[in-house]
Amino acid sequence: MALTMNDIYEILKNEGGRTPSEKVMEVSKDHPDKVALRYKEYGIWQETTYKDFWLKSNYVSMALRFFGVESGESVAIQSENRPEWFFADIGAQSIGAVSVGLYPTNPAAEVEYLLSHSESKIIFAEDQEQVDKALDVIDSLPQLEKIVYFENKGMYSYDHPKLMNFAEFLDIGKSEYEAFPEFVENEIKKLDDDDVAIMVYTSGTTGPPKGSMITHGNLRWVATQLPYFPISNNLREGDSQFLSYLPLCHVFGRLIDLLIGIHLMATINFAESIDTVQADLAEIQPTIFPAVPRILEKMHTGAIVRMKDASFLKRILFKFSMYLGDIAVERKLNKNFDDFFAKILLSIGYILSFRTLRKKLGLQRAEFAASGAAPIAPEVLKFFMSIGVPLFEAYGMTENCAYATSNSPENIKIGTVGIPAHGVELKLADDGEILIRSGGVFKGYFKDDQATSETIDKDGWLHTGDVGIYEGDFVKIIDRKRDIIITSGGKNVSPSEIENKIKVSPFIKEAIVIGDRRKFLSVLIGIEFDTVSNWALRKNIPHTTYRDLSEKQEVKDLVWKEISKANELTSSLEVREFRMIPKELDHEEGELTATQKVKRNVLIDQFSDLIEEMYS
Known about the structure:
23 helices
């Protein structure tokens, strides 16, 4: 008999959470035929049950054991999201090995650093591109014993003693499993809460990435809190559908797919590729939609631009529906989220315009949407709420398993990251830094005792590096402690507040506010090329490249109008000058982190001439 969501919550409340390995094993026995994973092969959906999920993870475990991987040793995975990622991850964790995720976008130099620093013995590489990166640096990685690749395409001419395809690797594991079928379950029973389960490398905005050690105890504790966590306890459907598209090497993606998804016995659908996420969303219509601000900003921009190109009648209906939606949101925020009149207004808007829009966005069935990993502009949050998508901002970081605070239907205040989550202690230091203590606080940084002691004090408080204030019971993040600008006049300014106001514009992709020890604020601007190009074509402005478009005077005038709008809305100092970044920022050129965060110090150095020009 299928479990309802209430049944699942009651089990979690009574029995507590499990580690991902324990939970997959448990569900494979109790609900073996439940579909765990769905993925496309040659355009046709293929399914993997929880029974097969657990079996293939066991094969990975046994093959790792065959090749000498011991408890506490590291195994790396460099791939887009796919079932094999899960098999490798659960397989490694089940025998006490440490699973280390690498971004597919990591260039060879970063791959070398991460594999060397983590001391990985085996890397699971998705395809030829990732194999090439590992082979380029393999001579400097004596501890790396195997490169196991998932896709055979382009690999037939490769000949290296350390190369092996995943099917062959699984065959070895299957033979070992058949000889020792109880081995993996016995190894799971030996795992201690203090044993490291996964290592998540920080984005490295200010230096080399640090390996955050997250233990089995951390994962089990966070899983135990799920009945009280808004992102999970607001789901009503017993057969939840997830779309796995957030990078699994990032703690946010791991929390959603491998902890929440498995504990809710959800079906996890894999996007065909990072380029097809919007189409996959529209096809799957997931129950839950976790996102980083960049994704939400892009969806918001796309919706606005599409409406500008729509017919006169559609534009009128959309404008009227947004008017109703805005009233509904204000009632929800100021009265309560279940306000009856607000529901009526949203229902009218849904019939007139939002049904089609939400279907195209892939959010028609979304019961809960969450924004995390970076600050998001209140205007973007309100847009999604106005079209009937319950989107809430939450806060967490790698070092606390992405579990710290959240808004919810019961407790919401736009512009804040909500109230402390169940089981989390939160306080502000004398300088306003947010300190957190919970069972989700990580063990420390791998091979970096100094950084660990600077981050976790003797009383167990995690020093987040974020400065915040309390607004009643709600926590508002001001900015990263290191990023706060102090002008020459002594004024403290949060650059992210201004940047987010500017990036609400559909024409602006990046905004980097400058002003530390300066007389006034300025900003470096990166345009949203597709949107600005569309605008320019409608204005009959010829252009070729990104640089050519960004240098057009008409585009500069457009950008200044958008900055002026942001100036009117910000509570900080106004931006007086701006310059256009002449190129699109790129991770491989060191300008962005793997999670697409701007490396502020790198850009300030790289575009120092433009900055000095603004202050000359």
